[in-house]
Specification:
Layout: H1 7-32, E1 39-43, H2 49-52, E2 59-63, E3 78-84, H3 97-100, E4 103-111, H4 136-145, E5 148-154, E6 164-171
Parallel strand pairs: 1-2, 1-3, 3-4
Antiparallel strand pairs: 4-6, 5-6
C-alpha cells in the first residue's frame, strides 16, 4: 500500500489541494475545538495542512506512512488523535488501535456511504486506494467496541467536498 503514497503523490496532493486546504483545516480545528486540545496527533498527516494551520497554543505530532514532512509520534498521551481521510485507506485497525488507548478523543473524516447510493458508481469507490467503505451505524458500532461514544458527526467539509463526513468520539475509559 505504501507505494501509492510516494513523493509524486505528495506533490500532486500539495498542488491540487492548496487552495482549499486552509478552509478545510480551519473547519477541522473548529470541529474539535470543544475538546480544548493542547496535544494532538495527526495520524496520516499527508501533506501536512492540518498541522500548518493549527492554533498557536496547540502542539501537534504528525505521522504518515509516506516520505512526507512529519514530526513522528513523540507523546505518550494525546487530547485528540485525528485520522483525517485515513481510516478508509487502512486494511484494519490493528495498526492504530494502540493510539485509541492514549487519547481522550478521536476525530476523523471519511467518505460515507449513504442509502440509495450505488457503490459501483459512487465517487469514492476506489478499490485499490479505499480499502474500507463505511456507513455511520458501522462506525458507531466499531468505536463502541473500542470503548468510544460519538459526540457528534456532520458534513462540515461539504462543500467543497462531497459525501465526506466528520466524526468526534470520546474515550469512555479515560
Amino acid at each position: 500500500m505504501s507505494n501509492l503514497y510516494d513523493l509524486e503523490y505528495y506533490y500532486k496532493m500539495l498542488k491540487n489541494n492548496s487552495l482549499t486546504s486552509k478552509a478545510i483545516s480551519t473547519i477541522r480545528w473548529e470541529f474539535i475545538a470543544e475538546t480544548n486540545p493542547r496535544v494532538v496527533l495527526d495520524y496520516g498527516t499527508g501533506v501536512g495542512f492540518f498541522v500548518a494551520f493549527k492554533p498557536e497554543n496547540v502542539t501537534v505530532d504528525s505521522y504518515d506512512i509516506g516520505p512526507f514532512p512529519q514530526t513522528g509520534i513523540k507523546h505518550k498521551d494525546y487530547d485528540v488523535v485525528c485520522f483525517w481521510d485515513v481510516l478508509e485507506h487502512m486494511p484494519n485497525f490493528h495498526e492504530v488501535h494502540p493510539y485509541f488507548n492514549i487519547t481522550n478523543y478521536i476525530a476523523f473524516s471519511v467518505p460515507l456511504l449513504t442509502p440509495n447510493i450505488d457503490l459501483r458508481t459512487w465517487k469514492h469507490f476506489k478499490p485499490e486506494e479505499h480499502l474500507k467503505v463505511f456507513t455511520e451505524p458501522q462506525l458507531d458500532s466499531l468505536f463502541a467496541y473500542y470503548g468510544f461514544s460519538k459526540i457528534k458527526s456532520a458534513y462540515v467539509e461539504c462543500p467543497p467536498r462531497v459525501d465526506v463526513k466528520s466524526f468526534l468520539y470520546k474515550n469512555n475509559k479515560r
